[in-house]
Design a protein that fits this description.
By secondary structure, this protein is an alpha/beta fold. It has helices at about 15-20, 50-55, 70-80, 95-100, 120-125, 160-180, 215-225, 290-300; strands at about 5-10, 25-30, 35-40, 45, 60, 85, 105-110, 130-140, 150-155, 230-235, 240-250, 260-265, 270, 275-285, 290.
């Protein structure tokens, strides 16, 4: 039975850990990020991987840092794992750590490498208008997602937002991880072409501010790329309004970008630099996320109102 040390933190990593458990792998240790305060009340919350690991009866270890940490090194060496399985852990691992597994350290990465190396590959694939993305398993080295590719699975992005696409890729990634471990000896690693590398840096809340003078196509992609977090937003009557669901409306207009040019029962339309954007789901500051029909029932929005 292969002995696996699992490293992962967010929701997208949970299906991979669950698949390892359900497929009977020996998992002596799960390493995840420390608990963090979250939400308005700043209550301390477990990372999703920890929540699942505890329900599965697995030992959880949450070091503040991995780099130059002798306690981590000794713990991992004492386990003597066959593999590391790393899925969105959130910390770079030094080569001395990656050298510990007897067979290999394997990473599940949610893009088609070398495109979108970094912590937000799902978001940037949507943001940049890619038609397809996928999951790679790869051998880990000390670089940022630069290791040799083992197996790949592709999917069409269509009109999925980042949350929906991440959920789909999480399941695909779990299946690919199991296949990689089971067939490891027969897989021929393929080197990445570093000349084609594209970075996928972390999204920030500030990046979500909508520039209505942009093309409606680009804004609609941005809305999907930033849903559910950190959310694209604008200002309406001096209040922040987050946009979660939208659709491009091919409309010729000469309105100022950001102006509400049409209001219907279940949507309203905002002029963009090119074409316009219909809004179907949003959240006004201080209110809950809701569909536009519910929003319009309680908010007197008028044609000519300007978001910005």
């Amino acid at each position: 039975m292969k002995k696996i040390v699992f490293m992962g933190t967010p929701d997208i990593a949970v299906p991979s850990l669950k698949a390892l458990v359900e497929n009977g792998f020996d998992i002596p240790l799960v390493i995840t990020q420390p608990d963090k305060p979250k939400g308005r009340g700043q209550a301390v919350q477990f990372p999703p991987v920890k929540e699942y690991a505890l329900t599965a009866g697995l030992e959880v270890y949450q070091p503040e840092k991995i780099k130059n940490n002798t306690e981590v090194m000794e713990k991992l060496k004492s386990i003597s794992p066959d593999f590391f399985a790393v899925v969105a852990y959130g910390k770079i691992l030094q080569q001395v750590v990656l050298d510990i597994p007897k067979t290999a350290p394997i990473n599940v990465h949610f893009s088609l490498l070398p495109k979108y190396r970094g912590p937000a590959p799902v978001n940037w694939a949507i943001m940049n208008g890619e038609e397809e993305t996928g999951v790679d398993t790869m051998l880990m080295d000390a670089g940022m997602d630069t290791g040799d590719i083992l197996l790949t699975a592709k999917t069409h992005i269509l009109k999925k937002n980042a949350g929906e696409l991440a959920d789909e890729l999480a399941v695909t990634g779990a299946e690919l991880l199991i296949k990689t471990l089971n067939e490891f000896d027969s897989i021929i690693p393929v080197k990445q072409d570093n000349n084609k590398a594209v970075k996928a840096p972390m999204m920030s809340k500030e990046m979500g501010l909508i520039d209505w003078s942009n093309n409606a196509v680009n804004i609609e992609r941005m809305v999907r790329a930033f849903t559910p977090w950190p959310a694209s937003y604008s200002m309406l009557d001096n209040k922040k309004v987050k946009i979660f669901k939208s659709e491009v409306a091919e409309i010729c207009h000469n309105a100022v970008a950001g102006t509400v040019i049409d209001i219907e029962k279940d949507s309203f339309t905002i002029a963009c630099g090119n074409n316009a954007l219909k809004i179907f789901e949003l959240q006004l500051e201080g209110k809950k996320r809701m569909d536009t029909k519910s929003f319009l029932a309680g908010y007197k929005l008028e044609k000519g109102s300007v978001l910005g």
